[in-house]
Amino acid sequence: VNQVANLTLVSSACDMVSTAYASTKDSHPYVRSVCDAAEKGVKSVTEATASCVQPVRTTLEPHVAAASEYASKGLDKLGETLPLLQKPVEQILSDTKELVSSRVADAKDAVRS
C-alpha cells in the first residue's frame, strides 16, 4: 500500500482530491457538517475494529508479508513498464491536452489540403 501511495501519479491524485475535499468543506457549511459526521463515524469504526482484528492480523502476518513482497515486485515491474506512473496528474493532463491539440491541428491541416 505504501509503495502504491508513493507513486507520483497516485500521490498527486490524492493531493488533488484532498485539496478539493478541503475546499468544498470550507465553502459549504452544510457539506462540512455532513463530512465531519462521516469522518467521526469512520474514525470510531476504525478504532473499534482495530482491537478486534488484531488476533486475525497476527495469525495472517506471514501470509500478508509474502503477498506484500510479491506485490512489491509486481509494482516495480509495472513502474518500469509504465513510466506514466512516475508523472504527476497535472503533467499528464497537460501532455494529453498538448497531444490532442496537436492531433486536431494536424487533422485541420489535412482537411485544408
UniProtKB/TrEMBL annotation:
Q: Which GO terms describe its cellular component?
A: cytosol; lipid droplet
GO biological process, alphabetically ordered? lipid storage; positive regulation of triglyceride storage
Query: A Pfam family name for this chain?
Result: Perilipin
Coiled coil start-end: none
State its location(s).
Lipid droplet
> What are the alphabetically sorted keywords of the record?
Lipid droplet
Q: Which family does it belong to?
A: Belongs to the perilipin family.
Its name, as the record gives it, is Perilipin-3
What is the phylogenetic placement of the source species in the record? Eukaryota, Metazoa, Chordata, Craniata, Vertebrata
Q: Which gene encodes it?
A: PLIN3_3
